[in-house]
């Protein structure tokens, strides 16, 4: 050993492996079919999500035709109304009881950064 302390030498004993190229067992037609199927499932999930919003937002009805923009706008308006209603109810509670509502009941509408 040297006077300066023990010395370490690093030895790279790892062997580099080449990745095996894997032949695709799917034909081009099968790949396309899989892609089409995946896209159909994605669209169906989106439709179900929109249908759920329509069920929850009073200003939307399943019988009327609606665009995505109408769903977004009316959902936003309903949420803004809920936030305001929550604020008014908390004020009413404070007036009647003299104390603030529990913090888990306090909703503040998120501000938009423009």
From TrEMBL:
GO terms for molecular function: DNA-binding transcription factor activity, RNA polymerase II-specific; protein dimerization activity; RNA polymerase II cis-regulatory region sequence-specific DNA binding. Residues 30-82 form the BHLH domain. Residues 28-42 have a biased composition (Basic and acidic residues). The keyword Nucleotidyltransferase does not apply. One of its GO terms (cellular component) is nucleus. PROSITE patterns: BHLH. This is LANO_0A04742g1_1. It comes from Lachancea nothofagi CBS 11611.
